[in-house]
Amino acid sequence: MSTGCSQSPSTLYQGLTAVHSTISWSASFYPQPWMNWQRRSTLGLAIDFPTLNVLGFVCYTISTCSFLYSPTIRAQYAARHPASPEPTVRLNDVAFGVHATIMVLLIYSQFFKWPWYFKVSSRQRASGPVLGIVGGSLVAIAAVAILVLRRAGWQQHDPLDWAWLDVIYTLGYVKLTCTFVKYIPQAWVNYKRKSTQGWSILQILFDLTGGILSLLQLVIDASLQGDWSGITGNPLKLGLSNISIAFDVIFIVQHYLLYPGHADLSIEAEDDSEQPLLAH
Predict the structure, then answer these.
(1) What is the mean pLDDT of residues 230-246?
(2) Is 3 helix (H, G, I), strand (E, B) or coil?
(3) Which of 171, 194, 213, 245 is deepest in the core (most CB within 10 A)?
(4) Given its phi and psi angles, is residue 234 left (phi above 0), alpha (psi -120 to 50 degrees) or beta?
(5) In angstroms, what CA-CA distances link 158 with 146, 162, 163?
(6) What's the CA gap between 210 and 230, in Å, rounded?
(7) Exposure letters 240-271 (e unless 16+ CB within 10 A, then b)
(8) Is the peptide bond before 115 cis (omega within 30 degrees of 0)?
(9) Tell me, what's the pLDDT at 215?
(10) Contact 29, 99 (CB under 8 A)
(11) What letter would DSSP give residue 255?
(12) Cβ-contact 42, 119 below 8 angstroms
């Protein structure tokens, strides 16, 4: 006898994948601030990383909330993707974004004297190019929003023209940019110091697991809809997963193969290594 609450294996697997990816990604935010707390220091962590994380996850949270809760954004998405009108953004994506925003703000705050009083290098400050990315991203978002207002005003009539959906997509591309760039300074810090001391590998292992499961969830969502354009219709989630996985592999190679030791570096050496890395 069948019941009304029975689920197909694909749907059940989809739900389990979504939950596990959210748990893994959410867990990845705890090892680094805990390591900083234990060491009473942020040395070994490139400040460009949390700087871009703050901007990126604020944009990510606004984007996912809009796809899930905004009737205007959902209607415009459906008009542009008639074969699969339902956005592949789920409640777990919103929950992850809100939680991630809180955690990256916490990590960023550890570079300030109050209330942590951690050891922070005098050279641990955001580099010029990273500040340029932050400023340029805000200008780009504002420019697209102004263009939409001038073309359509607050009342959107043609979703195929410039629409508020394009502003949300811009937020997504800012998040992708932050995700790609934020890893480069940290990879360079590890290379220059020939050590991953001060950089939690546990967060990378959680992040890799979450990235793989998130990518799998996106594929399952598209397959259940019977339209693979649902994957490209959510470029934020697709790009975020692939970029994260690629850099996670780099960090794993650095930690376990290239620099497996945890040398007790002097404060002077660590202080020198924290020079802004993208300044040149």
Answers:
(1) 74
(2) coil
(3) 171
(4) beta
(5) 16, 8, 8
(6) 20
(7) bbebbbebbebbeebbeeebeeeeebeeeebb
(8) yes
(9) 82
(10) yes
(11) I
(12) yes
Q: Smallest Cα–Cα separation from 180: which of 122, 217, 137, 139?
A: 137
Mean pLDDT over residues 60-73, rounded? 95
Is the distance from CB of 35 to CB of 117 less than 8 angstroms? no
Q: What is the phi/psi pair of residue 227, to 5°? A: -145, 115
- Domain ranges (residues) in the chain: 9-111+121-273
Q: What angle do CA 141, 145, 65 make, to 5 degrees?
A: 75
Q: Quick one: angle between helices 201-225 and 235-253, nearest 10?
A: 150
Residue 235 makes CB contacts below 8 A (sequence gap 6+) with 169, 172, 173, 176
Q: What is the largest CA-CA distance in the chain?
A: 72
Residues in the chain: 280
Q: Which two tokens stand for residue 196?
A: 């991953």
Q: pTM here?
A: 0.81
